[in-house]
């Protein structure tokens, strides 16, 4: 639905952001399935948990009921065997199996998947000292993983407790912070993350726009989620974000074509002059409440405050990542480890659109 009042014309032509499909192409295929990831790649778009038998699975929710015929928390199930997650199927047709991290990595290593980026959404419920060693073992099983696979895997971190273990166990993987508070992103993640995947509404106001400008000046990428409205897609493009995370990859790709042809006209027709006040979610007071509640929720799920005393920099001078992670594996694996959703980003060059396309998906492991 187009706005009643059109924006003033802005004669600019920004670069087109990548398109990341939330939970794969979840508007087309059952979310968090190999079919949805494959479709995400085709569309130019593309969440993580651990099972009791140490299998990392790609799934958005911590429980199985919403989208599958299974029941209960993923981390309370084994993946293999009777009653295992491997036998669970999606409710949506065509009915699909819940994929493992290994299966999705196989997809990325196929000749037609070498352009794909996988943005792993590491939910705060997970145990980093259990998850990252398991992840490293899978990644290092592929030939030339340091050049062909690891650079395309992106860790999306909600809580700072994951930084030390990520630096020790999977240092070659890119780290970005996923969050809803520019202040928290700046205070806790600025030095150890190369980008920030932020809740769109937290960036609309003055504080958010100052954060975007500061990050871009420092050479850090900005990503936004979950953007399903045309006007928000257009404004995110105007801000110069690296990627837009959406459930509607086909819609965004069509809009990209229009913006590439004539951004000024497309924005004038789709973005209202009062966009800044279009929803209460953008307003200053609601944003203060949202960001405060968001941080409290993440700390509760993670089981600890953002104010960690750990010296993250110490991880960089470990004599051996393998040796350090070996110690972690021996004594610190917890039964309740869960890797949250992941955004599988299928990104590939597209000369016609003048940019890259990307997709994202969730990862889950039964633990």
Automatic annotation (TrEMBL):
UniProt name for this protein: Related to PGC1 - phosphatidyl glycerol phospholipase C
GP-PDE domain segment(s): 17-256
GO-annotated molecular function: phosphoric diester hydrolase activity
PANTHER family: GLYCEROPHOSPHORYL DIESTER PHOSPHODIESTERASE, GP-PDE DOMAIN-CONTAINING PROTEIN
Natural source organism: Pseudozyma flocculosa
Lineage: Eukaryota, Fungi, Dikarya, Basidiomycota, Ustilaginomycotina
A Pfam family that the UniProt record links to this protein: GDPD
GO biological process entries: lipid metabolic process
UniProt xrefs under CDD domains: GDPD_YPL206cp_fungi
InterPro entries to which the protein is assigned, alphabetical: GP_PDE_dom, PLC-like_Pdiesterase_TIM-brl
């Amino acid at each position: 639905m187009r706005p009643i009042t059109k924006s003033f014309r802005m004669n600019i032509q920004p670069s087109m952001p990548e398109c990341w499909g939330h939970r794969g192409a979840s508007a087309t295929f059952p979310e968090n399935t190999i079919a949805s990831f494959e479709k995400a790649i085709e569309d130019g778009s593309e969440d993580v948990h651990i099972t009791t038998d140490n299998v990392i699975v790609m799934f958005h929710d911590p429980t199985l009921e919403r989208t599958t015929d299974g029941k209960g928390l993923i981390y309370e199930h084994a993946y293999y065997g009777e009653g295992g997650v491997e036998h669970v199927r999606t409710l949506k047709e065509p009915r699909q199996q819940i994929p493992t991290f290994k299966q999705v990595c196989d997809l990325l290593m196929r000749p037609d998947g070498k352009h794909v980026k996988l943005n792993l959404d590491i939910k705060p419920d997970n145990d980093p000292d259990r998850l990252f060693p398991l992840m490293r073992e899978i990644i290092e099983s592929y030939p030339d993983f340091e050049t062909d696979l690891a650079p395309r895997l992106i860790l999306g971190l909600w809580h700072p407790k994951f930084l030390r273990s990520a630096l020790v166990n999977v240092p070659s993987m890119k780290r970005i912070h996923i969050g809803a508070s520019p202040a928290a992103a700046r205070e806790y993640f600025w030095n150890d993350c190369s980008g920030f995947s932020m809740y769109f509404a937290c960036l609309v106001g003055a504080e958010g726009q100052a954060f975007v400008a500061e990050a871009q000046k420092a050479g850090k990428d900005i990503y936004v989620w979950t953007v399903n409205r045309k006007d928000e897609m257009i404004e995110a493009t105007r801000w110069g974000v690296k990627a837009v995370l959406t459930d509607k990859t086909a819609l965004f790709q069509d809009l990209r074509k229009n913006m590439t042809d004539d951004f000024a006209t497309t924005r004038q027709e789709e973005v209202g002059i009062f966009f800044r006040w279009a929803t209460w979610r953008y307003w200053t007071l609601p944003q203060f409440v949202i960001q405060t509640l968001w941080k409290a929720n993440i700390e509760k799920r993670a089981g600890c405050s953002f104010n960690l005393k750990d010296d993250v920099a110490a991880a960089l001078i470990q004599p051996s990542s393998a040796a350090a992670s070996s110690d972690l594996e021996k004594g610190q694996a917890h039964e309740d480890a869960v890797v949250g959703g992941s955004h599988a980003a299928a990104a590939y060059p597209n000369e016609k659109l003048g940019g890259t396309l990307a997709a994202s998906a969730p990862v889950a492991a039964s633990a």
